[in-house]
Amino acid sequence: MGLVKYVGRRLLLLVPTLFGVLLMVFVVSRVLIPNPARAWAGPRADEETVRKIGERYHLYDPVHIQFWYYVTDLLRGDWGHSPSSGQPVLKMIKTFFPATVELAMAAMAISILIGVFLGVISAANQNKPIDHGSRIFALFGVASPPFLIALLIQLIFFYHLQLFPESGGRISHTVLPPKYITGLFLVDSLVTGNWTAFWNSLNHLIMPAIALALLYFGIASRLTRASMLEAMRMDYVRMARAKGLPRRTVIYKHALRNALIPTTSVMTVMFAYMLGGSVVTETIFSWPGVGRYAATSILNLEYPAVMGVTLIFALSVILVNLLADILYVFLDPRITLR
Amino acid sequence: MSTDELVKVEGLRLIFETLYGTVKALSGVDLTIKRREVLGLVGESGCGKTVLGLSIIGLLPIPPGKILDGKIYYQGRNLLELSDKDMEKVRGTGITMIFQEPMTALNPVFTVGDQITESIKVRSERSSERPHREKAEKPRMRPRSKNSWSNEVIEALKLVRISDPQSIVRRYPHELSGGMRQRVMTAMALAAKPSLMIADEPTTAVDVTTQAQVLKLMRELMEEVNTSILFISHDFGVIAEISDRVAVMYAGNIVEEAPVYELFESPLHPYTRALLASLPSVASKKKGLEAIAGEVPSLVALPPGCAFHPRCRRAKKECSLVVPKLTEVSPNHKVACLPD
Amino acid sequence: MSLLSILFERKELYITLRILRRNPLSVIGSIIVAIFVIMALAAVLVGDKVTPYNPYEIDLSRRLQPPSWTHLFGTDQLGRDVFSRVIIGAPIDLAIALIVVGASVVMGVAVGSIAGYYGGRFDEVLMRITDVFLAFPIVMLALAVSMALGPGIFHVIEALIVVWWPVYARTARAEAMAVKENQYIEAARASGSSNFTIVRNHIVPNIISPLLVYGTLDLGFVILYASVLSYLGLGAQPPQPEWGKMVFDGQIFLRSAWWVPIIPGLIILIVVIGFSLFGDALRDALDPRMRK
Q: What does DSSP say about strands B65-74 and B5-18: parallel, antiparallel, or unpaired?
């Protein structure tokens, strides 16, 4: 029961942040734009349409009235329409969202597994070649422009080695996507026992996920390494050794367990980075997710779409942070559910 | 090594390579720890006592640290020649160590019971390897469910006079008081039934009343569990209270070693004398506090010859040329000073 | 350890250089940064003359030629020499980085030092505000702001400043809170200095140093994000040779002429690594623990 209250209290603390996020997107989407009505209506709309759009979204009203309508519109599900296709933005986001979730989760999983593993090995063998090697590898990851990695992977694995399907997207044209349960192809195909769809989707998912993961696994590995080194300097590690525990146990039980605590909180920050990185990665791999939607919207000057994606990303980050807070409680006995 | 000697350090020389120069942490240390005794190791901060303790148990960080010379004998073997794995086997059941701050020495994410169980497991695993060693029966390790611990853990807690072991055993370190943590740390160290426990400033971080309890407890434990204690401290009063014998350290060297009463009654080394003279309790009989003239030398730039000679009232010319060796001048009383 | 004391005291400088020299990576980083800065300065001061070819000159007969001795990085789809364009593109990113980091440091120190020192309501409000900023993925927020403001590099700079300053404010706040605990602050207050004077004379100088070190490391990452924004179509407009934009323009030729998109991307990577190594080394060298 303490947990429910804890979550409840955390949610309460989120309210000002949520409000701030809404306010921020509002400011960016209405106040900063020189001519919001024109922007919303699109460059090709005639004056009449611009005026009608402006009236519908209250873009000519005073700021505080605009904000009111902005929030109520959002809650009603009206996140604007694409000027060119007329499609409602929220509907488009909903369609593309599961693809991005799947990509981000896969990338996170890879990042964490490789990153934490490498970080622990690095810390345990400090200053030996493997440590230097993994640190350099991590540095390349963090410093790489996302488009470079994605393009290089395409070049090497798709064109030269021909290892993975060149056709972009989540699944080949010839294969039927699995029945829609969660929207995550891997999960849905596993649950329905659809092996063709599973392997095909996995095939398509691997390379973009690795591309996205390579960018940020460096953060995980550097942080794990630093936390491990920090933990290994602690007195309780000396005490564990003084007790006669073998070096393995000392590292993998005592140090690691403590090092995971700060590492977890950074993972949540990484998630925010990954959402950002998905914009470029999805574009290059033709992955039909929210990131690519944002990128094409920029090129086509579709303001409502970009603002909508910005908002949904921020909401996702807030949600993931909340989950991480809860996870923290289970990891660190010093945190009381107070 | 005679049969009542447990650990014998001979001529240990140790340096640290730092950016500011080479730190001579230990310059030829000779020390003997006997069975069933509390040996107090006393000296000012930075004189090398902790380093000596860490060297004996083999926990000195070796890249900055480097052992130049010397031997540390334990059970007939030179510990410095042991491989990492073999040294690991000595720790826990042979030699163990407790530290100054119990809060940081206990792992915050594991329960007290878990951490004590680890020590017990170490002992049971080793005694099963060499069955002739331990005539006591192996502790039976039942598969443990979430909130139950074996009797041995409870016994270990009772040994350190914790009154309600059942409730303490499932707690995390941050939930306990300072004095309690101190006891838990001691229980953890003794659960593996070591021959030697090195205690590095165990009373420095606790208040005076707890201090007295800790000292009393340690003396009793030494008798009950048959563990020798190397008690490291800068506090002469504490050393006097608990030790059987005392070794005084200065700038990386043992300068005097004697049974405790004899050391206080007739200190031979000028440094020991000066130290005792500067203690408030002794000085209250005299006119005021006497500080020792001069400063402790930096271990990077030690004076030639005897390290203490620049501050010594009885210094002669030879004192700056020769490093005096620790020699026995009367039964059990050793000094490192040139005779007058 | 203060950056300023490093620069002005010989002993500290000597120790810093010793530490830096020990680590070959930091040497590499410094070299990369130096080359980049020289390249950018040369491009700005000397202009087209520093490049082997005119970076804007279109010659369709020489398009898409692979790297060779005549064209070190090859030519792009309009026959322009990629090497020349890379050089001319350097000052754009360097300028963006310097302005963004500079403004972020100033804003961050101004807001963070006050929040860290005074605490209370102001601090709470600042934390909430930075929370909001940090809830947005950097790329996305910069995109949205940049798009809202319109095309052009200056808007990219503004967008990046908006996104960047909160982290500096938080760091400055943390440092200010640490400095606040020092004895000399109490002494200053006891001798009658006003709070504002204390902040100005004591807090700010002490927190500037770590923030500047952090900023040096960050220069590379600003360049990274600026190039991503340009890649996505914001910021640099043709024919400005911004590296990110060059990648985007060239990516359709990935298969046939890989050097057109890949090389500018690699250059970005190298520059970012350079700043990262240099900043890391600088930070390690200034870490009091390392100096012991």
A: antiparallel
CATH number of B5-94+232-335: 3.40.50.300
**Which residues, other chains included, contact A234 with Cβ-Cβ below 8 Å and sequence gap of 6+?**
A255, A258, B104
Q: Which residue of A has its CA nearest to C219?
A: A143
Round to whole Å and give the CA distance between B183 and B212.
13
**Which structural domain range is residue C118 located in?**
3-291
How many inter-chain contacts (A to B, CB under 8 Å) are there? 81
**Phi-psi label, residue B166: left if phi above 0, alpha if psi -120 to 50, beta otherwise:** alpha
Number of domains present in the structure of chain C: 1
Interface confidence, given as ipTM, is 0.85
Nearest residue of chain C to residue A292 (CA atoms): C232
CATH of the domain at C70: 1.10.3720.10
Inter-chain residue contact C137 with A276, CB threshold 8 Å? yes
Read off the pTM. 0.77
Specify the amino acid at residue C97.
Answer: A
Q: Which CATH architecture has domain B102-228?
A: 3-Layer(aba) Sandwich (3.40)
Per-residue pLDDT of chain B (340 residues; tens, 9 = 90+): 567 888 888 889 998 888 778 888 888 889 999 988 999 999 888 788 889 999 999 888 877 888 888 999 998 889 988 888 888 888 988 899 998 888 888 888 888 888 888 888 888 888 776 554 444 444 444 445 555 667 888 888 888 888 888 888 888 888 888 888 888 898 888 888 899 999 999 888 778 888 888 888 888 888 888 889 999 998 888 888 889 999 999 888 898 999 999 888 888 888 888 888 777 665 455 555 566 777 778 887 888 888 888 888 777 888 888 788 888 888 888 888 887 6
Number of other residues whose CB lies within 10 A of the CB of residue B329 = 12
All structural domains of chain B with their residue ranges:
5-94+232-335, 102-228
Q: Do domains B5-94+232-335 and B102-228 have the same CATH topology?
A: yes
